[in-house]
Amino acid sequence: MKLHRIKALVIRQLYLYPRNFPRLVDIFVWPVLELLVWGFLSVYLEQINLGSLNIVSILLGAMIFWELLSRSQQAVTLVFYEDVWEKNLLNVFVSPLRLSEYSLSMIFLGLVRILMQGAILGLIALLLYHFNIFQYGIYTVPFVVSLLLFGWILGLFIIAVILRFGTSAQVLGFGAIFLIQPFSAVFYPVSALPHAVQWIAYCLPTTYVFEGMRTVISTGTLPVMTLIWSFALNIVYLALVFWFFYAMFKKVKEKGLLLKLDQ
Amino acid sequence: MSSVISIKDLKKTFGSGAKAVTAVDGISFDVKEGTITGLLGPNGAGKTTTIQMILDLITPTSGTVSIFGMDMKHHREEILSKVNFSSPYVSLPSNLKVYENLYTFARLYGVKDVQGKVDELADFFDIRDLLLRKTSSLSTGQLTRLNMTKALLNDPKFLLLDEPTASLDPDIADRTRKLFMRIKNERGITMLYTSHNMEEIEEICDRVIFINKGKIRDDGTPQELVKKYGHKDLNEVFLTIAREAN
User: Fold this and answer.
1) For position B37, what pLDDT does the model report?
2) From the candidates A95, A248, A255, A257, which should be mutated to test the interface with B, based on the most B CB atoms within 10 A?
3) Measured between alpha carbons, how far is B22 from B14 in angstroms, rounded to an integer?
4) Of A189, A259, B179, B214, which is most buried with the most CB atoms under 10 A?
């Protein structure tokens, strides 16, 4: 593993950030617009008085954390799309770059984007809705880490699928995340789901994150077992996604598909 | 003269059963140090598949590729750090400025003095005034020079050039060929070169390998082959070999 190669790919993307307007819109404008929609809805629900529930905390917290998950997945896939769209994949893969270094550079860029988005969303939520993303302090951090991890896992999975099945699968990069949203208990508890599909929810690390976050918000205590489950599942999925990624890349090389992605 | 690359019984079959297609069918050849070798053949002959196997972008079905006496499976990083590739069909990111592209690839190849190397090559290829321009704004000729600059960033010992003058006008193509001769003479880089322009091949290649339907059909210096087939130039040799195989 060579740090200079990871750094090269990270810096290449960072060159573009200050001068690429669509990229800035993608990082800042869409998440902020979504925050505004959910923020106004939360304020409205609070005004019509639904009892003692802290609607702003529950809905806005869920929305912001869902956004972090979604954006961390997209950040990883967009870095790969950039190489496909620019027909640059061959140039990258005829260099001594390792697949693990390529993956790490995407993950690191994802982290940079998420830090920027998290900062702007947190600030706007505080200013407009008096919702402090860090009001539960250190308890929030491990859940956020777990979400980012699962976002990267999904991102790598999508890239592996595109490598193997071609650019027609690119739509997954923007839509796949919504396949897991209904089962992740983002805005409602798992108990609200039909019994027949609850097992799906319990197979997702995201479910434990959102359930755990609601516990933190309502009781102020850290549900340790919930957190352990989310990390344990992430570790399993991380191992599986790396195995899948390498297996797909091996298949791509056997079938000569890398050149086709670049055409 | 030692061999930079040695290929033995290299074979690639895509698919299996009745749908199996053999793109490269057991070819063997060496490329001697400091020479330019042309890999020629009609479309679909197996040239690109061979180049991709050399670069470890396609896994061979059987056979071996040895570069600098090492095999790609165990020495990939070591080999690729001394090899580079250029093709007009592979782009550099168009949304980056020229110097940003060069800095990125210099870092990818672990170049020690990035600024110094980019400056040196910018002078060599006469692209200094292009460094601050966006890559998307370059003309085809300028892009060719940029691709060649990128290809020399790591001081390669072995360079693969896939139809480097395709889509260039005769003037720029001529300048590009002269550039290759200069690179060979001044830097002693070994090159494997594909092209459909036989005049160009006669001008710059020390040796040519004709490949068709995945097999090597003939091999020798351009002059030897023209004499052997009793034709007036390499273009006629190409037509004979391409049509013989049909």
Assistant:
1) 95
2) A95
3) 6
4) B214
- Chain B residues within 8 A of A96 when measuring between CB atoms: 76-78, 80-81, 108-110
Cβ contact (<8 Å) for B80 and A86?
no
Contact yes or no for A16 and B96 at CB 8 A: yes
Assign B118 to helix, strand or coil: helix
Distances (CA, A) of B207 to B219, B231, B242: 7, 17, 18
Interface pTM, i.e. ipTM:
0.87
Residues in chain A closer than 8 A to B85 (CB atoms): 90-91, 94
Residue whose tokens read 């690191």: A108
Smallest Cβ–Cβ distance between B77 and the set A82, A86, A96 belongs to: A96
Tokens encoding B207: 């040796």
In this complex, do B108 and A95 lie within 8 Å of one another by their Cβ atoms? yes
CB B7 within 8 A of CB B27: yes
pLDDT for res B144: 86
How do residues A57-87 score in pLDDT, each as one tens digit? 777 788 888 888 888 898 888 888 888 888 8
DSSP states of B169-231: -HHHHHHHHHHHHHHHHHH--EEEEE-S-HHHHHHH-SEEEEEETTEEEEEE-HHHHHHHHT-
Chain A positions in Cβ-Cβ contact with residue B109 (cut-off 8 Å)? 95-96
Amino acid at site B6: S
What is the pTM (predicted TM-score) of this model?
A: 0.84
* 3-state secondary structure at position B64: strand
**Short-list B158, B142, B194, B150, CA closest to B83:** B158
Which of A82, A250, A258 has the CB atom closest to B57's CB atom? A258
Asked if B104 lies within 8 A of A11 by C-beta distance, the reply is yes
**A240-244, B34-38, B139-143: segment of lowest average pLDDT:** B139-143
Q: How far apart are alpha carbons B100 and A231 in whole angstroms?
A: 39
